[in-house]
Amino acid sequence: MEFYLLLLLAGVLGGLISGLLGVGGGLIYVLFLPMAFSYIGIPEQEIAQFTIANSLMGTFFAASFATFNHIRNKEFYYKAILIISSAGIVTGLLTLKFVVNTSFYAQDEFNVVIIILMLVMLFTTLRNAKRQSSFVEQTTKTKRVFTLTGTFSGTVAALSGLGGGIVIIPFLNQVLKFDIRKAKAISLGVIVITSLCMVIYNAFQTPETDVDQVSAGYLVFGISVPIIIGTLISASYGVKLSRKIPSSTISYLFAGFVLIVMVKKIFELI
């Protein structure tokens, strides 16, 4: 029972972070899921694949619940979302096929990727957090940069299970000068589309490990369903909370969660 309560808690935290920061909840899921899969007997050489697949599934639901609230408040920027998503789907699926779902990509490689991503995001977020209080939105729109954003975010989502928001938000906010809240809303919309495509792809894969639970490909429903239920509880509240706190505070919160994930993965690698 405690095992499933822990997964439910992961979902609650992930949903809250998704709505608040726009990164889809993967920052929380990649902390809990490796422990969960180790607990049910998944061998180390396939923990990365199961973690990524189920993190993306949780991320899809977290982002969907949060995006619904943005749509209801007329904060859905469909043109940017569609352009970024199109590139993200292509690179995400290619990365899953040729890198992630192979014998090469084991847990150590997965942790190294996470640590590198966290270092980059921590540096860029802290460097720009102080600027948010005096930030002036310019909303420069360019399909080329949107496509580049999708290309990188899809790759990162597939390699890490983080959903791609850790790439999308800095690109939109710091390169294209979108307000952090608008960047967050776009990020969530992109995550809904790209993560769904990758979840479907992972459902039709054939793991080497036989899972003694209801599953489809790399998706293990006994693990993912409690997370999804927790996400349902908190995602909309995260969106509401994000409207009440300053943009600079959102940036610092993002940096804090990035630091937690990075430290945890360093300890796992050691």
TrEMBL record:
Topology in membrane: Multi-pass membrane protein
InterPro entries referenced in this protein's UniProt entry, alphabetically: TM_pro_TauE-like (IPR002781), TSUP/Inactive_protease-like (IPR051598)
Chain ranges passing through the membrane: 7-32, 47-68, 80-100, 112-129, 150-173, 185-204, 216-237, 249-267
Signal peptide coordinates: none
Cell compartment(s), UniProt: Cell membrane; Membrane
Gene Ontology cellular component terms for the protein in this record: plasma membrane
Entry keywords, A to Z: Cell membrane, Membrane, Transmembrane, Transmembrane helix
Similarity-based family: Belongs to the 4-toluene sulfonate uptake permease (TSUP) (TC 2.A.102) family.
PANTHER family assigned: MEMBRANE TRANSPORTER PROTEIN MJ0441-RELATED, MEMBRANE TRANSPORTER PROTEIN YJNA-RELATED
Name of the protein in question: Probable membrane transporter protein
Organism whose genome encodes this protein: Marivirga atlantica
